[in-house]
Design brief:
453 residues; alpha/beta; Rossmann fold; two-stranded parallel sheet
Length: 453
């Protein structure tokens, strides 16, 4: 059993990953999220009180906070990102650089100081650009075609450089186009569904011939689980696609939606092509299967019409739900054998870890022993070998804070509910940055503990 930090945990992919880890593993999960436009606590509402989940409100660009949090975990899955492609085209790359590149750098520097068992960076297939050959394997050239994609490539290559320079246990994961429950309705699959249900024309960029490898988020979650549990010597330093090996055009997605909804309209309208459009994406699945035995098990028609809530097409006469509290899709398909796990952590809770009047969290006063494999000192210690003094000190501070409640200001806004707005939420989760707040009482320095959002 490991303590797994998932950054951007209130976003689309990370919230589904957290739910998957809680249901299918014995890992304790810590979610760090700044609750900006892409983060919504409703995505975690049904698991917020889970005894193995801890929610921290904070910013991955806060180096002091990151150092403190990293000292108490074994595995990091960095899924925090600015990921709205059209926003990056419209407004430029500034916000994307600070989160996707600088935020990754701060996490990497933190694990240089306080090693973890492994660091999984959730990159993106967008770093490849348009397919020069198919399927696109991990050796495909990187030709990002939007500011968003360029910053994902920057974080991707930065993580790799820390592996080869410092020997950090970095694994770079490149998921292809995700869809599924709790996805923001501005993304193409839920957007088509909501337009069809409202008897509105389905809007298609350009001629609709662009194709993508559509990956259900439950498959993405199970793939990340496989990489968390795989022997480190097999995957450290590797770049690994998560894909299905099948691409479907946007026109075909529109046709499937209209056919499934039935009788609620049936038209499409072509709008101006998006600048930097990627023509085709189809991923190679060979490497991940070779390393872990994992393969995608959810086809598009099953994934878009099955029992998962959110992005689901309900066959003729039904509807589509975007709710965040229904049960997740059951695991499907053959899976590599896993050792039995058990254990429980502290009760799930929401706490604002950013203190008023401080730019960052308190730095740790000690370092944990480094693994000799990584060129460290002191003979090393397995991440699963038992409690460490540094972790115990951090746990003590957590318990103290839990008793007195987090410190938070009086005028900090709650995270907005953007389920019905026009702001996009892409593959990864909410960037852990920006808005401070949480559930604060009117009296400065006190708060109420979150149970269910």
């Amino acid at each position: 059993m490991s303590r797994v930090l998932v950054t951007g945990g209130a976003g689309f992919i990370p919230s589904n990953l957290i739910r998957h880890l809680l249901e299918h593993t014995g890992h304790n999960v810590i979610s760090l999220d700044a609750l900006t436009y892409a983060g919504n606590l409703e995505n975690l509402a049904d698991v917020m009180s889970h005894p193995r989940l801890e929610f921290l409100h904070g910013d991955i660009r806060d180096a002091g906070l990151v150092r403190e949090v990293v000292g108490g975990v074994d595995v990091i899955v960095n899924a925090a990102a600015e990921s709205h492609v059209e926003k990056s085209i419209r407004e430029g790359a500034s916000e994307f650089v600070t989160t996707n590149v600088e935020g990754t750098q701060i996490l990497l520097d933190a694990i240089r100081e306080t090693p973890v068992e492994r660091f999984l960076l959730v990159s993106s297939s967008e770093v490849y650009g348009t397919a020069e050959r198919d399927p696109m394997d991990e050796e495909h050239p990187l030709n990002p075609r939007s500011p968003y994609a360029a910053t994902k490539a920057g974080g991707d290559r930065l993580a790799y450089s820390y592996r080869v320079t410092y020997g950090l246990p970095v694994v770079i994961v490149r998921p292809f186009n995700n869809y599924g429950p709790r996805q923001h309705p501005e993304k193409v699959v839920p957007r088509f569904i909501t337009q069809a249900l409202a008897a509105e024309p389905l809007t298609i960029h350009g001629e609709g011939r662009a194709s993508r490898d559509w990956l259900h988020v439950d498959d993405t979650s199970s793939a990340i689980e496989a990489l968390i549990d795989a022997p480190l010597d097999r995957i450290a330093g590797e770049v690994i696609n998560v894909a299905t090996g099948v691409d479907i055009s946007v026109n075909e997605i529109a046709r499937l939606v209209l056919e499934a909804i039935g009788g609620r309209g049936g038209t499409t309208v072509n709008v101006e092509e998006r600048p930097g459009q990627v023509d085709r994406h189809i991923g190679s699945t060979d490497k991940l299967e070779l390393l872990t035995g994992w393969r995608a098990s959810i086809g598009f028609e099953e994934g878009s019409s099955g029992p998962s809530p959110g992005t689901a097409i309900t066959r003729r006469g039904g509807g589509a739900s975007s709710g965040a509290s229904a049960s997740p899709r059951p695991r499907r398909g053959p899976r590599p054998a896993r050792a039995a796990r058990s254990g429980a952590g502290a009760a799930g809770r929401l706490r604002d870890r950013r203190r008023p009047g401080r730019a960052g969290g308190r730095a740790r006063s000690g370092r944990r022993a480094r693994d000799p494999l990584l060129g460290g000192r002191g003979g090393g210690r397995s991440a699963r070998a038992g409690p460490r003094r540094g972790r115990d000190r951090l746990a003590g501070r957590r318990l103290a804070r839990r008793d007195r409640g987090p410190r938070c200001g009086t005028n900090r806004p709650r995270a907005p509910d953007l389920r019905a707005d026009g702001i996009d939420r892409d593959l990864e989760g909410a960037p852990a940055r920006g808005v401070r707040g949480g559930r604060c009482s009117p009296t400065r320095g006190h708060s109420t503990r979150a149970t269910r959002a």
